[in-house]
Amino acid sequence: MDFLHPVFCTIVPPHLLDRLARAENPAISAAARRTLVSDAARRTQRRLTTVLGAPSVGAGAEAGVPNRSVHDAEHGTKLPGTLVRGEGDDATQDATVNRAYGGLGATFELFRAAYGRDSIDGAGLPLIASVHYDENYGNAFWDGEQMVFGDGDGEIFLDFTLPVDVIGHELAHGFTQYTANLTYFGQPGALNESVSDVFGSLVKQYALGQTAEQADWLIGAGLLHENVQGVALRSMKAPGTAYDDDVLGRDPQPATMDDYVRTGRDNGGVHINSGIPNHAFYLLATALGGNAWERAGQIWYDVLTGGVLEVDASFTDFAKATVKAAADRYGQGDEHEAVVKAWSQVGVGTQ
């Protein structure tokens, strides 16, 4: 495998926190600024770790069995913090700890049951999480080695362990890191984000036993405070409609290439333009029907693990790879036709 370049990936994009940092309410603006400063420090640390090489993490104790540990950062920033629940331990009195533990398990189980993969790296990687990170921290992230969850600011964001798809999303960054290793900028960065939304949504659907038709296709539903005019961070079904709030602003995600956003912010719009491949996956999954993690998810999984993607893959590169993967696994039938149509509907060519 090529040298891995783990990146610092947050569920809440910097452009959204930038807006909150300018909010009139000092409780909101202060929390957002604190989160931005903390994220910037972590991002720098991640770059240094990439250069120096990430520390080794041992393999799981038993193949096909999760190896989870949840730590309490106790509102500090030193990671991982105090171990509060290890694999097989009883539930604690802390609901946040238990949700993190359950979300790690739900993600492990999707990859194991649906794709026969042993943890996100395929080799039993221990799944480590830290909760209660920093004070009023409004984000969750994968730092290349572990998961970290803030408690939110109580004004805009609630506890980041509440939506299981947020946990699945961040761990899926690790899955991408160990497979296609997509560069975190521009279109490959948007694909990186989209892959995390796809598998985060699949974790939620698998855990709830939902078909593609039953799923809400929202990322982060339940994360926003009740006073916020919005339902989630993103919508795969209808990108651009997740929120429209005086403080938070309006969801900027495009659903098709007609509205592709060219920007230097957010690593070239990785959290924004991810709406396009997100929508393509939604269209494919609902066209095929049934459980989205089966045929639609299998095609995406085959592409990520097939060794065909360059680290700087464009939307078109990815789309072509999914068309080939569909034909390789299912032939020239419904799946192949649905993949071609889905990408065509969002304006990405596959020829």
Question: Can you put this structure into words, describing what you see?
Answer:
By secondary structure, the chain is α+β, with helices and mostly antiparallel strands. It has helices at 14-21, 26-52, 95-115, 164-177, 186-208, 266-269, 275-288, 295-305, 315-330, 334-345, and strands at 9-10, 68-72, 82-86, 127-131, 140-142, 147-149, 218-219, 234-235, 244-245, 249-250. The strands form 3 sheets. A 6-stranded mixed β-sheet has the order 1-5-6-4-2-3, with helices on one face. Helix 1 (14-21) runs antiparallel to helix 2, helix 7 (275-288) packs antiparallel against helix 10 (334-345) and helix 8 (295-305) crosses helix 9. It is globular, with a radius of gyration of 19 Å.
Sum this structure up briefly.
This protein is of the alpha+beta class and 351 residues long. Helix content is 43%, strand content 9%.
Quaternary: single chain
User: Main β-sheet: number of strands, strand sense, barrel status?
Assistant: 6 strands, mixed
Helix content: 40-55%
Rg of Cα set: 19 Å
Question: What pattern of helices and strands is seen along the backbone?
Answer: EHHEEHEEEHHEEEEHHHHH
* Content of β-strand: 5-15%
**Count of helical regions:** 10
Strand order of the largest sheet: 1-5-6-4-2-3
Distance separating the two termini: 29 Å
Parts with pLDDT < 50 across at least 5 consecutive residues: 48-60
Shape estimate: globular
Helix/strand class: alpha+beta
Features of the shown structure:
globular, alpha+beta, 6-stranded mixed β-sheet, 10 strands, two-stranded antiparallel ribbon, 10 helices, 351 residues
